């Protein structure tokens, strides 16, 4: 199935349903609903809860106009990482026009992978020696995941943070091709917002950068959107807001090794114009 979904993603170019695909950027028209899921990290229980809580299969049966967007980081740090990958692959295979799979830093290229990267260990435990072949196929799958989702006039979605030197939308769409010559992909996958700074600073993560509100504001204006929605950072409440409401962070995994007491997901009506992440709080579902 990994190979089938990789081929499916490889063929997703131009227009897919209501979506416009350019490189690794998905352009979404401002209509219908969007469900956004943050980092899962092998937490099968939380993933199952979200799918049940949003009544996913009912939405499918009734032909509802909706997208389920995952912000990346499906595996690592969690015992059920293989099972989480199976579920998201199956979802994409069965409902390709309703599922958008984004790339996290735990699905990064080899020179940007998080450390420790324990997915191979989980695959070996699950599949024995065949786990090596499964991991090889998953690594190829990672290379076809989307790095950016743009909801016209509304939101920009990354896994990590703002590519601080981006000057055109092509820098986002083709960040994977410009890597490592240019730092766009590294920052999209690894960077974090920081309040009280201007510009960028080296990140304590060892990759990506800390970026200030001025960096966020510049990108939002360039794209004519109001809020950056991202994952990447654990938060005690499952979400946090930075840069005076310009950045919303979502984290959907619960429990160790992270210290967040709650997981969350976000459900939006895309036709509604919201200008600040604080207005999005009413649509955050905490569990």
Q: Distance between the terminal alpha carbons, to the nearest Å?
A: 31 Å
User: What is the CATH class designation?
Assistant: Alpha Beta
Q: How would you name the oligomeric state of the polypeptide chains in this document?
A: single chain
CATH topology: Purple Acid Phosphatase, chain A, domain 2
Order of helices and strands: HEEEEHHEHEHHEEHHHEEEHEEEEHE
Architecture, CATH level 2?
4-Layer Sandwich
Radius of gyration: 17 Å
Taken as a percent bin, the fraction of beta residues is 15-25%
Overall structural domain count? 1
- Could you name the CATH homologous superfamily? Metallo-dependent phosphatases
The chain-level mean pLDDT equals 96
The tally of helices reads: 11
Q: Provide the structure class.
A: alpha/beta
Q: Which shape, going by the Cα principal axes?
A: globular
Strand order of the largest sheet: 1-2-3-7-8-12-14-13
**Which stretches are low in confidence, meaning pLDDT under 50 for 5 or more residues running?**
none
């Amino acid at each position: 199935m990994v190979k089938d979904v990789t081929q499916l993603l490889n063929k997703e170019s131009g227009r897919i349903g209501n979506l416009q695909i350019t490189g690794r950027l998905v352009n979404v028209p401002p209509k219908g609903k969007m469900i956004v899921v943050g980092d899962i990290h092998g937490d099968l229980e939380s993933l199952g809860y979200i799918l049940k809580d949003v009544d996913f299969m009912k939405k499918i049966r009734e032909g509802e106009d909706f997208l389920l967007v995952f912000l990346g980081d499906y595996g690592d740090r969690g015992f059920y990482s293989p099972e989480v990958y199976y579920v998201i692959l199956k979802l994409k295979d069965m409902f390709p026009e309703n599922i958008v799979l984004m790339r996290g830093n735990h699905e990064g290229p080899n020179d940007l992978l998080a450390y420790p990267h324990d997915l191979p260990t989980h695959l070996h435990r699950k599949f024995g020696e065949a786990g090596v072949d499964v991991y090889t196929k998953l690594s190829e799958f990672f290379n076809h995941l989307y790095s950016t989702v743009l909801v016209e006039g509304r939101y920009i979605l990354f896994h990590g943070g703002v590519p601080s030197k981006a000057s055109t939308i092509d820098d986002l769409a083709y960040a994977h091709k410009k890597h490592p010559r240019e730092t766009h992909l590294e920052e999209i996958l690894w960077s974090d917002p920081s309040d009280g700074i201007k510009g960028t600073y080296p990140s304590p993560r060892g990759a990506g950068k800390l970026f200030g509100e001025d960096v966020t504001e510049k990108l939002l204006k360039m794209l004519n959107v109001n809020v950056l929605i991202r994952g990447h950072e654990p938060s005690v409440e499952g979400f946090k807001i930075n840069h005076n409401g310009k950045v919303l962070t979502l984290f959907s995994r619960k429990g160790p090794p992270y210290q967040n007491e709650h997981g969350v997901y976000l459900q939006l009506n895309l036709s509604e114009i919201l200008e600040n992440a604080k207005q999005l709080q009413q649509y955050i579902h905490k569990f």
